[in-house]
Specification:
Length: 534
Amino acid sequence: MGSYKKDKHRTSPLPESSNSNKDEMGSYNYKMFNLFNRKFKITEAEPPKDVKQLFSKFSNGGSHMTADQLRRFLVLHQDELDCTLADAQKIVEEVINRRHHLTRYSRHSLNLDDFFHFLLYDDLNGPITSQVHNDMTAPLAQYFIYTGHNSYLTGNQLSSDCSEVPIVKALQRGVRVIELDLWPGSAKDEILVLHGRTLTTPVPLIKCLKSIRDYAFASSPYPVIITLEDHLTPELQAKVAEMVTQTFGGMLYYPESDSLLQFPSPESLKHRIIISTKPPKEYLESSGIKRKGPLSPGGRNSSEEDDEASGIPYHTAELEADDRSDSDQDDVDLTDCDNKSGQLGAPAYKRLITIHAGKPKGCLKDALKVAADKVRRLSLSEQELEKAAATNGTDVVRFTQNNILRIYPKGTRITSSNYKPIVGWMHGAQMIAFNMQVYIVGVPADAAKRKTKIIEDNWSPAWNEEFTFPLTVPELALLRVEVQEYDMSDKDDFGGQTCLPVLDLRPGIRSVPLHDKKGEKLKNVRLLMGFQFV
């Protein structure tokens, strides 16, 4: 179904380091192990041969490239068919302004170095388009949604701080699903966000809600989904409903009816915030609230966090609304509790839920049954997904055609590591809950890895190598590029990485920015890469 090719990639110059000594010959000396110095030759990166050839071709052999000649380059070589002369003129002015700091443009054309630097500006010549090119009017279930897991944690799953800061960073990166675990605090009406049964320090819910309100659409106009892991009493659920409605106001979307026949489209939900969680059981009718074990501040509901439990000893309580006719002998009936506040809280809380969620009860096949009168969200752990894919693959695909499937990491990933999303995507899982800022990876037939030659002692390496990757399902293929610093005596050091969806790659020569292991963009470090589809 096509192949993709990357060729002749190069890095831009790295910034000077303050921890080194520069000699008069333009090289740096680094002291290693306090025993000897290692010299790195510093050379200004010059345009590679193919860039020089392109400049000469589109400038008609001249020393400068006019705006019209740049437009022809962008249309014919970069496949930017909609580029106008005005667009090209703006690029010329911007490049000259950045390079020469001119407020009044003394010239309206690019020389070879200007053209080379334009190619290196990832904001002007990035590898993927920043514009939405997909049809966004289909129901939500038809899209893969950028999903975070325990979005409030600053580090590992056991002992890191909970904060609104990771939520802000996630939203700025384009994450559309934010997960919050809600727990009662020690004070009345206090609601905290933390990872249950761990040593993580809490953050007030109101801080998280206000951060979501302020940064929800910093990088995208499409809806933000808040998934709530609710460990609250009915009284506190009522408080959550109040906080959510007051904080988000008109930004909050919720349906008029209790259940939806199909989910709304991303286009219709632009600049809206929606809630997804398990609806409270109708305990007003069933009065089936049960309590198991001693109640304590470490108490929790039965939820997906049970699958993530780390083994830290806590006295736990399970509060669950159950409308089954039979019950365990050790259940303690709490129907004599004062649920006056709960009578008010349950409808208000339930009314705000757009995407009704749940975990499988009983056999997996039953959990994946498709209801004719409503759509919903189902959560599975990565292990449950693997089992479902092996034994009930067809049922999973059928379920995800109209319903939403969310996959979350197994509990042993205490360092906040990620799992491979491909199995979930192959079966239509829309919400893969992990940090996307993760060679070609995709369906098994498309998995491939290539490695360049080693270039030593050069700040501006040019590999000039070409790789071809045949693809069968480009829609699910990702191009992951990692740069490593070669080490003869030990494991190579990590230098930077990027991960790009192949289907969104733009043809031509592009500037590819690199990121650190946490997904933060590295300053002034990028690769110049060429992409071609045949």
